[in-house]
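Handout, tutorial session.
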Amino acid sequence: MIDLEARLAELDGQGLRRRRRVLESGQGAHVTVDGRDFLSFASNDYLGLAAHPAIAEAARTAAAEYGAGAGAAHLLTGHHVLHHRLEQELAEFVGLPAALLFSTGYMANLGVVTALVGRDGAVFADRLNHASLVDAALLSRADHRRYRHGDLTHLEQLLRESDAKDKLIATDTVFSMDGDLAPVPELLALAEKYKAWLYLDDAHGFGVLGEQGHGVLEHYRLTAPDSRLVYLATLGKAAGVSGAFVAGSEALVEWLVNKARTYIYTTATPPMLAAAVSASLKLIAGEPQRRVRLASLIDRLKTGVASLPWPLMASDTPIQPLLIGDNHDALRLADGLRERGILCPAIRPPTVPEGSARLRISLSAAHAEADIDRLLTALGELA
């Protein structure tokens, strides 16, 4: 039997043990955690919508009319008219023919990849992909080939050498710990050349990228993507609610309804959440000033960090990683900020490569310029 206490002590010694904190307020730029008020740079609420009253009211209204739970899987009696309408709205929002709701992005990635490739297939994955894409590739039992981060030459070499029956290129669009963007147009060209699916996980781009927040496809002006494209976005980050959806061709969605096990064998999400997401879509598209504000805050942070001993990694997204290096140094810096009433998580291996521990500064349209200045002042003191 594994000695769990000894293993936990090892994690402590390596600076890798993780502990939960208890949020006692709504999500936002200022939160109450474990009984104390903090300025937070620790959420993915990029547009400040998680506690928006219009979204909460949409959920309340739907709950009053339809109840709290879906009560069944989608293929039984759990597929509510609110789910159905939202899928149509989401497909239109991202400019693709059809969409399918999933309970979480993790479940979507597991379901889609395993439905599209198997033992005689191959998954070609960026080395910095999210853990859910890694697990999806392993669960599919396909040949799992990882290419160097953003390296198109390496990816093409792997594609050219593969004799797999079915090929799938999988990538984050905005990498969750680095904040940089995948070269999507070039990846789509390679998918077309080698007759592969291109699976885009736009968890951190949806709502943020593009003039109207439609995501990475709008950002790159890919208005008529090839039918081999599979697009995923989560609804608990910039959208401020919960869940995920996958969009693509009508044939793709119909196949997933029949073959994605994480869709078939689970209870549908509450209809009230579908109503909340529908309200969120209107805010994302109708309030572009939220994205303008985000861009301004990103610029302010970059300017202020220039005088500090730690560099920001290259990113133009709300994810601004401050590279520290050593695990214990990153933890000490995060602790120092927490003592000053600021939450900013230390990210360590295996989430990031060895020697690249960092503070993951997550910006939100809910932040004020004074919040950025407070963070910069605290970092200057700790430096």
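The second record follows below. Compare its token runs with those of the first.
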Amino acid sequence: MSRVTKQKVNITSQSENLVAQIQLPASKSISNRALILNEILKVKLGKGIVLLNVSDADDTQILITAIAQSGGTIYLDNAGTCMRFLCAYFAALPGINVVLTGSERLHERPIHSLVKALQKMGAEINYLSKENCLPISIVGKQLSGGLVKVTGNQSSQFISALLLIAPLLTNPLEIQVEGEIVSKEYIKLSQLMLQEFGIPCQISEDYRLIKAYSIHQENIPETYNIEADWSSAAFFYEAAILAEKADLFFENLQLNSIQGDAILAKWMEEFGINSIQKENGVAISKIRKGKLNINKIDFTNHPDLAPAIICASAGASIPFCAEGISSLQVKESNRIIALKNGLDLLHFKVKTTENTLCHDGLAHAFYQNSCINTENDHRITMAFSMLAIAQSNIVLLESESVKKSFPNFWIEAKKIGLTVK
């Protein structure tokens, strides 16, 4: 889990016809939830279950290392999911005494609404430097549960973090969600996984009230298999949009997935990409060429798909407007700014607000190898790298940030002709 170092890299593409079998990483979102839930099973029942195909992403490895600790300072780099899940998990475990810290960017990412909800249940959490930000100290206690209020407009991970610890609470948990709700599909993912681990969970139709209860031992599986990651597949769908021809196969990917980002397959039909479920994965092919007319997509519930689709539409000369992207401002970087700055360097006309990014799909000058600052953000790096298929080449400020979610990205990208120098 090395910290990202900045070293300019030149990405070139050697093929316009993409034919490859791609090994996607296991879902980081599923892996991180499964790891926390498995530890809770061990606490409550004295034994866990066998987790199969756990992600090897840096974020997941950080989580694996952290959950084995019961004291001291834990460095989380820029792992926002780990920060929120571990904040709730450690707060609900009597005997724990830890400090959570991380990178400069992690210290800026929101956590206050989660801390406030935990404190209402009796948690002992204190800010050590700046109010409402990491670093924080946590002394684990038996928490009460009951009704808590959480804001929904910054991160669905506040809600998921609370749901995951429901079996550790003395009373059933009720979460009242206030304000706009982003990334609902990740809340749904948490619900489905709780149920698969024998923990009843109910979500109201409008997502305003969510309840979770104790473990039902008779419903716990012996093993749990983690799917391939749909969020990572987005970058290879992007490549298919940019290429002249594409026939790609994704091992272990499922169209009928518990991941909300599986909606990508449906969205890609509008971009001329067809997806077919095979016995051991998903095959995609480019079925339509020429000018397409996709005006806009609302990414409110699927923000991780935005960078790939925004860059794909630009590279394919499709005027496009991404809506519902306000939560991108508090990711590993401010992705709205990172995407705008990168596309500006490529001479696209880009207009942004706090919730939208629109571009005209037309390059207004010849690309001259300007170096794109990826802001050490894995999804920004992967999204811009695929534009090498449409441009003569792409220069990025760094290439190592992909390890956060997709450690073998460059190995898989090489299969479709991308070279890193």
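Points raised in discussion: The chain has a mean pLDDT of 94.
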